[in-house]
Amino acid sequence: MSSPLTDSSNMNKDYAKANFQNLEGSANAGSLGNEFNLDVILDVAVTLSMEVGRAKIPIRNLLQLNQGSVVELERTAGEPLDVYANGTLIAHGEVVVVNEKFGVRLTDVVSPAERIRKLK
Questions:
Q1: Would 41 be classed as within a structural domain?
Q2: Which of 7, 64, 98, 108 could bond to 92 as cystine, CB 3.0-4.6 Å?
Q3: What is the pLDDT along the chain (120 residues), one digit of tens a residue?
Q4: pTM to 2 decimals?
């Protein structure tokens, strides 16, 4: 018994070939020497997160934390914080206040070549 998807008698030979947009185009891809049209991804949302530091503590100590507790971080005061886009380090920066809201001033941006090297 054959299914309608595999039965050759039900196959229609008038299907059109799928056409996909060519991504080569106007935006420069940097040192690669190729050009790509980045317009197709410009509206894709990414999650930015800033990390002041990290700490590794036993669950016993974690359960004892309460309001007013201080957790010592592995980073010293004055060191720049890390800026991540979807979990990938993209920059370092410092905390600023803009219109009574916190912000980040980027002090060092990781080069695209360095980000690619870290993916390997």
A1: no
A2: 108
A3: 555 555 555 555 666 677 766 655 544 444 455 567 788 888 999 999 999 999 999 999 999 999 999 999 998 888 899 999 988 899 999 989 999 998 999 999 999 888 777 776
A4: 0.58
